[in-house]
Please model this.
Amino acid sequence: QVQLVESGGGLVQAGGSLRLSCAASGRTSSIYGMGWFRQAPGKEREFVAAIRWNGGSTYYVDSVKGRFTISRDNVKNTVYLQVNSLKPEDTAVYYCAAAKHVYRGSYSRSDEYDYWGQGTQVTVSS
Model:
């Protein structure tokens, strides 16, 4: 079992930045990948970014490439999402997730993840 605790969300103006954190606890040795998803009001949850735990390969949805950066701290069992140049359309609840199996793809599918955080709200005003 893995527990995920998210933090770092908030209200920012367009062009601002935030650093989202997701700390994993429990059986963290079973984590092979972690990712971020987001869900805006009235919309379905969408993939944002993912990182493979060992190799560190990263994956992003096209709309955030060049603005968002996912990273990890293996010792702290924490994944981060640095979000820069925020736009109002980035407003959403951001969820972190952990996968306990190895996938050869990009970890972009929600059904590849076994554990989910509670979500942290990111609101971007203009």
Observations:
- The longest strand covers residues 18-26.
- The chain has no helices and eleven strands.
- The radius of gyration is 13 Å.
